[in-house]
Amino acid sequence: MADLRVASRYVKSLLGLAVEKGAVEAVHQDMLMFSKICKENRAFVMMLKSPVIRHDKKRDILEKIFAAKMNPLSMAIIDILTRKNREPLLPSIATEFHNAYNVHKGIGQANITTSLPMDNEMREVIESIVRKLSDRKLVEIDEKVDKDLIGGFILNVGDRQIDASIKSKLRTLSLKFNENYYIKEF
Fold first, then answer.
1. 24-40 helix and 42-49 helix, angle to the nearest 10 degrees
2. Segments forming the whole domain that contains residue 138
3. Which segments of the chain does DSSP mark as H helices, in order?
4. Final residue belonging to a domain, choices 60, 82, 103
5. Strand partners, 110
6. Distance (Å) of CA 18 to CA 76, 77, 145
């Protein structure tokens, strides 16, 4: 949690500087690329967190990987963090930058978990629901599949949750049966 708080401070500064320099879109794409690499390559994240690997070596690795691909502003934050020995924060900063970007652009965010992958028609219906719940014209939906739901979906928009899963309905039904059974026993 403390790392997240520190990361959000760097994100606020980076976003402010990106707005000032007119590089918001470029920095956002850089942070998305960095997040993708972190999600796909556990060894990369472990390297960033490793206390055994020297910080200057980490900076050299990061520079070789990203210098030609990233905006100078994105490289500057990476350089600053590695000089301060804070490179383990980079994955959190990349993720938090995306969230801050969405707030800056007025994009609503939602998470949906379904038992099966959604088709385009269902995705449009869910986007419409999210637009109404979040009062945003643009929405971004993070989709996950969980076969344990049996059917239905769980939708999270901000602090609201709509649980229309079969698993939840079965759990509620089971609790009612158990409650009625115990009441009749006594």
1. 100
2. 108-185
3. 2-21, 24-40, 42-49, 55-66, 72-83, 90-105, 120-134, 166-185
4. 103
5. 141, 157
6. 11, 11, 35
